[in-house]
Amino acid sequence: MNKNSMYYLNHIASALMVVMISAKVPAGHFKILYFASAASYTSKDYDVLPAPLPIAELFRTLEERYAGMESKVLGSCLVTVNLVYVDMPENADESEFVIKDGDEVAIIPPVSSG
């Protein structure tokens, strides 16, 4: 990994910590953090969504809120739940993982190694 990539990842980690600390989540909800292209597309740094939500339904839920987001942004992003990367299943039957009340989800766009 080159210096630019490391800087970018450190910047995301710092921003993630600031958003995690600053935004309160109401009971029965989880926080979803947006970075780079995801933040630009939504015009937000974060959203608060109702929990529980199966991970397999996350992209569909975001697509309903932000038309076109799945193909333009989410298809190339990674997802973390509570700072742990998770695999996004192809359909709802492939995963039993559920985002729970109080969880923090992050949508992380690709890191350029230019």
The share of residues in extended strands comes to 15-25%
Give the quaternary arrangement of the chains: single chain
Order of helices and strands: HEHEEHHEEEE
The helix fraction, in percent, is: 25-40%
Number of domains: 1
The CATH topology assignment is Ubiquitin-like (UB roll)
Profile the largest sheet.
5 strands, mixed
Number of helices: 4
Poorly predicted parts: none
Keywords: Cytoplasm, Membrane, Molybdenum cofactor biosynthesis, Nucleotide-binding, Phosphoprotein, Transmembrane, Transmembrane helix
Subunit structure: Heterotetramer; composed of 2 small (MOCS2A) and 2 large (MOCS2B) subunits.
Pathway: Cofactor biosynthesis; molybdopterin biosynthesis
InterPro entries: Beta-grasp_dom_sf, MOCS2A, MOCS2A_euk, Mopterin_synth/thiamin_S_b, ThiS/MoaD-like
List the helices and strands and how they pair.
Layout lengths: L2 H20 L6 E6 L2 H6 L3 E5 L2 E2 L3 H8 L3 H4 L5 E4 L2 E3 L11 E2 L4 E5 L6
Detailed description of the structure:
The modification Glycyl adenylate is found at residue 114. By secondary structure, the protein is α+β, with helices and mostly antiparallel strands. Helix content is 33%, strand content 24%. The protein has one domain (3-108): Ubiquitin-like (UB roll) (Roll). It has helices at 3-22, 37-42, 58-65, 69-72; strands spanning 29-34, 46-50, 53-54, 78-81, 84-86, 98-99, 104-108. The termini are close together. The model has no long low-confidence stretch (mean pLDDT 84).
